[in-house]
Amino acid sequence: MTSPTSGRTSLEETFSDLVAEHQSMVINTCYRFVLNKEDAEDIAQEVFIEAYRSLENFRGDAKISTWLYRIAVTKSLDFLRRKKRKKRFSSLKRVIGRNDPIQEISLPDHDTPDETMLEQERLTVLENALENLPDNQKTAFLLSKYDGYGNQEIAEIMATTVPAVESLIHRAKKNLQKKLEKHYRNR
Amino acid sequence: MKNITVTGNAGLQHRNASDRNGWRHIDETATKMTAMKQHNRDSAEQDVRTTLGLLDSLDHIEPHHLFRARVMKRIDEENSSLHRLPFNARHGVKMALMALLLAVNAGSAFLVMQSAGENRAVDKDEVIASLSSEYSSPALSYYIDRGNEELASE
Predict the structure, then answer these.
(1) Which of A30, A109, A119, B74 could form a disulfide with A40 if both were Cys (CB 3.0 to 4.6 A apart)?
(2) How many CB atoms lie within 10 A of CB B144?
(3) What is the pLDDT of residues A84-115, one digit of tens each?
(4) Taking CB atoms and an 8 Å limit, are A142 and B55 in contact across chains?
(5) Chain A residues within 8 Å of chain B (Cβ atoms)
């Protein structure tokens, strides 16, 4: 069925409404994982395209929002894996003498360049620490850091139980703390 | 040498004093080191807290005002590229696959039938050959010769 005004099918109209309703949550979810606004928007776009393509496969046994956020998590983790591979490759290139520009992470503006640099450094340290966490710990921890999700919803997204999510968050915190302490003490 | 050969009470007092100074120095260094270690530990803990706090202080980002339009544009492009193909072309891949499958099936069936036919022909020949060889064996030659002679006399 095509709408005479927009030339869109009713499915597309419904999907457009779905995008409007969930775009903010999806983008912010991706942002927690990749810590970069532009990358988060790009991934969110892929999330909605993927969702549209696989609408037929949506069985309706979960909420459509949970299904969308699950795709967002998967896409973000894929992005991080690709980035890790790229990083390994660029360090290899550095070893053989070909430099790659370091990826910039967008940060809020600071009063002094020193503060910005310090925060940039901290964010890089945090990224490295997060990179080495197992995917399930990383997911539970990062989703818990976003106000939009309670443990119940995280459990639904990860298709697990609330106690399992709590345990994952606890383990992730401990692991991160250990990694960061090790880094800052060996400075 | 003079310093070493200091004797008597004065010398002892001097040595005690220098020992005390030495111990005090060691104590002070140890205290300083402990304080430094404590400071480093505190500073590391503070750094850890600040670093982890970065995740809490991440601001909520607003989607670009064209975000939805971009997503829908990509969906439109995907759909139109699918619709741009004529009906036959869209179903052509399916039909071609089905035709290929049929051709493969028919071919294999033909091959099976052909090989079965060849086997049958071979079998027939073999039977005839074996029969003829059985009756031309030396054991039957007497009857064959006798039969030939009788025919000649008649």
Answers:
(1) A30
(2) 11
(3) 888 777 766 666 655 444 444 455 555 677 77
(4) yes
(5) 8, 12, 15-16, 19-20, 23-24, 27-28, 31-32, 35, 37, 40-41, 44-45, 48-49, 52-53, 108, 119, 122-123, 125-126, 129, 142, 145, 176-177, 180-181, 184-185
